[in-house]
Amino acid sequence: MTYRALYLTNTPEFSVRVAELEDLPEGDVELRIDHSTLNYKDALALCNKSPIVRTWPMVAGIDATGVVESSTHPDFQAGDAVVLNGWGLGETRWGGLAQRTRAPGDWLVKLPASLTPRDAAAIGTAGYTAALCVLALQRHGLTPSDGPILVTGATGGVGSIALMLLARAGFEVHALTGKTADHAYLKNLGAATVQDRAELTAPGKALQKERFAGVVDALGSQALVNACAQVKRNGAVAACGLAMGMDFPASVAPFILRGITLYGIDSVYASPARRQSAWARLASGLELNALAGIVHEISLAEAVPAAEKMLAGQLTGRYLVDLNI
Can you tell me the distance from the alpha carbon of 175 to that of 302, in angstroms, rounded to the nearest whole number? Predict the structure, then answer.
């Protein structure tokens, strides 16, 4: 049986195309993939802008949602709706921008009953990462009475869903963005205020005015440094992205003089228990109707031009890839 996939090669030079394939990777669960997504990491891979792909050739895509076709794993059977992300998909392991795949059952998460595979794809790795961030802040003990939460990169997939989760949980959310045209979008998602990204991108003092109980940061670099400098005593920061850069030119002052905590969020190799907690949080904490306002649905053939728009900063929300069109 053949299936369509977004296929990347690097010989004699980089290319990406929609191809008909027959081979499947190894695994004890075979999936029919209905939907995938386009994440920032996918865009880097598809446009050959960063060494995301480590094994060639590669089927792109770090997300897959669909239905189990067959399984020898004890926890899964034909017909189960599942989500698959992380674990090197699209990097060292053939990914989810394909109509079929196989994977180890230990990598899969069975979807909560209230979520369809399409819902899970609309949420994707971005939303799952956002949930891990929110859970980290809440495990730290933060509650709405502690003060506002800052979400950086707020118009992206992580930021949009983190904002929605936090607002629905009763937090006052301050959204940070460089897109002045998207203030209304962020307010509709639940932002109490919207700040210009430029406020956090220039070097500042090691300790600044205490403004936020916590932060969800998708930017890294100087923005993360300034965010840490503005967190209240004993607050927390969940860092999950590096859109501004991997560097962290910071001082230890916020950590030893205010006792703040910086949590690094690893969504790729998170434990099955953390994954299940995150998806349960998404199922209970998101207004699914609101996802329609942040999703742009595309076909597999449209993925490359969509990736170019994403890297150019021309996307607000999420790309959902329907593998059946």
Answer: 30
